[in-house]
Each structure stands twice: as structure tokens, then as C-alpha cells.
Amino acid sequence: MNWQAGGDGLLALAAFWVALGPGRRLPAVQLACLLLGSAAVLGTLRFSGVLPLPQLHQFVSLLGAGVGLPLLALSLGAPAGAVATQRRYTWIFAVIAAVLCVLLGVVAGIKLWSSVCAFASALAIAAVAARRRDLLALGVGICMVLAFATFAAQVSAGPLRPGEFLHIGLALAMLLLGRWATVRHSRS
Amino acid sequence: MNPILFAIPVFMAFVGLEAWLAWRRGLKVYRLHDALTSINIGAMSETIRALLKLLSVAVYALVVERVGAFSWDLKSPWVWVLAFFMYDFFYYWAHRSGHEVNLLWAAHVVHHSSEDYNLSTALRQSSTNQVFYWLFYLPMAIVGIPVTVFVIIALISVVYQFWSHTQLVGKLGWADRVFVTPSNHRVHHGRNDYCLDKNYGGTLIIWDRLFGTHVAERDDEPVVYGTLVPLQSWNPLWGNLKNYVNIWRQVRSTSGWSNKLMRVFAPPGWGSADAPAPSMPPAASFSRFDTPALKWQQVYGLLASAAVFGLLIHLLIAAPSLSVPQRAAYAALLVIHAVGMAWVFEGKSWALHFEAARATLVFGALAAGLWFGSVALPAQVAAIAVLALSLAVLAQARAERARLGMPMTGVGGVSA
């Protein structure tokens, strides 16, 4: 197991914990975490050399960024909205976002699309949470913004490369998201 | 070669066979206006498909090339088995979305707009479905199912679904529990309460059983075919566009962006406290849409439909050698042809004059060799014959209406 596979494995564990645990009653959170977790599992398999499927890993990562993170932004930004609370609308949003990802990211080859979606989602989560003084959601947003910023700046430290910072940052965001979902559930 | 070219004569032969069998059994399952409208809507759909099909197949192929997770051997039976089940599974969800998402219902509704149920209904396919439906099959491309396998499996599914649109085949025992059979699919086309949003499957009914949308046909309650909000028209263009216009009107009259979005993406008939559901005609007021079926009008319908099919077959053959604007112009010509025929059926005041002018222009141009690509001599002769026949039949239709004291009107005459 190398650091890359380890970082992906950590993110996969955190994402699946939220999807199957505290986020299971929130359809958008659950689907987003399943997408991010699936991408991370493929990353673990790829970088550990167990089952390298690089194209599929990249594609599911694209969906994680272009579908999963906007879903999280909607869940944290409008937690009572139809997309966040009703499985039907979660899926409608996911299909539309996925089609945009395929058309822009794959067909048109606009690689920036997933990065824009991811960063915009993270900023939106942080901004809305700050306005509402929702500390847990703010933590999720800040973790994500920092993770994407360090990845974009290609920060390295010892054995940790930019990808590992991204995965560790997202894994932390997932843990805070799980806590946010638990608190939200206990309030409702 | 486009496989639809082979399917068209086979489908038409089966429509003829079913009509003959029904007539022999004394069953009234066909009305000429409705059947010809279904066939014309099908022709229009194929016309549009000639424009759009390459786009969806090209995107599918590109996704396979760039993302496809696995490489599959075309000779392996497993890829075909996997593709069959995957296609049918995604068909179920595409079709279900087509009924439960208002925007997609607008695309699919034309297939359900017939108030009869026979093999011609199978041909009544939407022109705009193809803009949305292929998106649902992209997961197959992600798994790497080759485009050849995808196209052939899709074709098998289309051919299979044709036979389920009949009232002449009853219940089929165990097959009704596994496959989409005529009995299962009759329920899907019903507007009875127990039929609504049921039996979405394409080839296998197991998905409906799995996801809780299956219901068996009831012997004690005959299925009444059609939609809750009837089309009330023979016009294939209006049939394809009516629900989009309705959605546009609903969105404009609704306040608040979230309510506007719900008008587009919620199930048809959605409403809330601050955005009331669109009004629905009371169930008791339902009567099957019909217009007087006069002899010469019907003869003209048959003649015009045959001409549409002749031109459609030429378009499908010639499409690869035509530019996109040429294809679009040809498609527009066929759509106008089908709309003109519908106006004749509906007794519109301008219909006979419009059709005479249109036939003169279209078949005159074809006879003069001014067409899309080169025109063979037999086609020129046929164009002259069709033009002469069209004008003669239209004159007879006009005389017939005058004789019966039925002047052409601005609105279609509707009778129960």
C-alpha cells in the first residue's frame, strides 16, 4: 500500500461511512458520498496495483467533482430543498449534472469543468454556511476549499504529494459532513 | 444501410395483417384516421432521427473510446447477454422517467396519444424522445459495451416492442410474468386509474416487478386507451409539441424559480399550495377523439401516407450523401406533408387548397428533377402520377364535402 492508495482508501472509508451511516436519510448527501467513495475505491485499486482501471477512475472522479460536490453544496446550502430531501429530484439533478459532465468533460474535452464545479461547490458551501453561522457546514466548506487550493498549488510535504492532501482534506470534510448530518437528523 | 429500411415494410405488412385479422374477427381496433396519424407520426420520427441519430451514436462511441472501462470481444456471448440486460434495465428507467418527469413526458406523450391500441400505435413514436433517451444508456458506454453491440441490442428491443401493441393476443400465462407481453403493455397504455404509471419495461417485465410498478391486466375492467389530457388532434406536429407548449405556459404563469423548476422536472400534473396543479378535464367528460371519415378524405389519406413513406425511404437511403441543411430541408418537407394530411382529416378550411398547392410544388419539383440528389426516370414518372392522383382525389374530397353539406371549417369537427 503506497501513500496514494492510502489517501484514496481513507477518503473511501470516510465517504462510505457517511453514505451508509449518518447521511443515509439524506438522499443527496448519500448519493454524493457514494460517488466520491466509488471514485476513491477505484483510486485505491488503481494506485495499489490490485485492479488498475485508470480511465474509469478518472471518469468516476469527474462525476464525483461534477455531480457529487454540487449535490453536497445543494444539501448543505438548501437542506430542506427538493433535491436534498427527495430521492426523485436528487436523481434528476444527478442525471442532468452527469450529462453535462459527459458532454463538457468527455466529449468537448473541457478538463477544467470538474475543477470549476468542485471549487465553486466548496466556496458555495463555505459562503452559505458562514452567512447562516452553521459551524459544521462551514468546516466542511473550509476543508474542501483548502484541499482544492493545496491541490491546485501542487503542495507537497515529505511523502505526501498534492493528491494526498486533496484526499485527506476531503476525508476530513466527510467526517464533518457526517457530524453535520447527525446533528441535523437529531434536530428534525 | 439503415436497418429501419428493412423494418418499415415488415412493420407495415404486420399492421395490414392485424387490421385484416381484426376485421375477420369483427373487432373494431382500427380507425383509418388514427392509424394513418400513427404511421405519419412514426414517419416524422424517423425523419428527425435521420438528422439526430448520428449525434447520439457518435457521442456513445466517443465515451466508449475515452472512458470505456473494459474491452469486450464481440464474439463472446457474454458481452451480448450483459448488453441485453443493461439495455433493458436502462430502458426501464428511461421510460419511467419519460412518464414521471414533466419535460420527458412532453417528449414521450405522443406515443400515448392514440385512443386506439393496435400495431400502428407502436409506430407512433416521438420525434423529440431521441434528444433525451440516449443519455440514459451512457453507463453502457462507460462499461465499454461496443457501439455495434449497443446499436444491435437497441434494434432488437425496438423490434420486440412492436408486437406488444396489439389487442388480438390475450394473456400468455408464465410469459406475462417474465416478458413485456401485449397484456402487460395494454395496461401501460391505459388511462384507467389502475393503469397509470405502470409496466414500463421494454422486453422484460421483471424490472417492474422489482421496482414495484407492475400490475396485471384486469379481466373485469377493460383498458381505456389514451392519456388523461387527450391530444384532440390528428396533427403529428402538434402531437409532438403540445406538452412543451403547455409546460412553457405553466412556467410563465408560475411565480418563484423553484416552482418554475418543479413545473419542468416534477411529475405531470404537479401542484403545490402556491402553484396549483394544472386543471384536468373531468373523467366523465372523456370521449374518443374523432372526426368525420369521408370516403375521398380517406383515399387521400392513404395516398398521402404512401407518398410520405416513399419520400421517407428515399431520405433514409440518401441521408448519408446529403449535407445537414439538405437533410433538415428534406425533413421539414416531410413534416409539412404530414401536417397537411392531418388538416385534411380535421376538415380545416384551408386544408384542400394547401394540399393542392403543396402537392403541386413538391411533386412538380420531383418530376422536374429538382430534388435532393439525382432523380431516376421512374421516380419522375411516379411523381407525375402521384401529383395527378392527389389533385383528382382532393377535388373529389371537396365535392364530397359540398354534397354532404359539410363545409370545411376553421376548427376540426369533433364527435364522440
Topology record:
The complex is a heterodimer of chains A (188) and B (416).
Chain A: H1 3-20, H2 27-48, H3 54-77, H4 82-85, H5 87-107, H6 112-132, H7 135-152, H8 162-187
Helix pairs in contact in A: 1-2, 1-8, 2-3, 3-5, 3-6, 6-7, 7-8
Chain B: H1 4-24, H2 32-67, H3 77-100, H4 102-112, H5 119-123, H6 129-132, H7 138-143, H8 147-163, H9 175-178, H10 182-188, H11 206-211, H12 236-253, H13 257-265, H14 295-318, H15 324-346, H16 351-367, H17 377-403
Description:
The complex is a heterodimer of chains A (188) and B (416). Chain A is 82% helix and 0% strand. Chain A is built from eight helices and no strands. In chain A, helix 1 runs parallel beside helix 8. Chain A starts with a helix and ends with a helix. With 416 residues, chain B is mainly α. Chain B is 62% helix and 0% strand. In chain B, helix 14 packs antiparallel against helix 17 and helix 16 runs antiparallel to helix 17. The radius of gyration of chain B is 22 Å and the shape is globular. Chain B starts with a helix and ends in a 13-residue tail after the last helix. In chain B, 38% of the residues are buried. The C terminus of chain B is likely disordered. Chains A and B meet through helix 3 and helix 5 of A and helix 2 and helix 13 of B.
What labels would you give this structure?
heterodimer; A: about 190 residues; mainly alpha; 8 helices; B: about 425 residues; 17 helices; disordered C terminus
Note the run of SSEs of chain B as H and E: HHHHHHHHHHHHHHHHH
What structural category characterises the helix and strand content of chain A? mainly alpha
The count of β-strands of chain A is 0
Helical content class of chain B = 55-70%
Could you give the distance between the termini of chain A?
Answer: 42 Å
**β-sheet strand percentage of chain B:** under 5%
What's the tally of helices of chain B?
Answer: 17
SS-based class of chain B: mainly alpha
Q: Name the poorly predicted regions of chain B.
A: 411-416
Total count of strands of chain B: 0
Main pleated-sheet profile of chain B = none
C-alpha termini separation of chain B: 44 Å
Biggest beta sheet summary of chain A: none
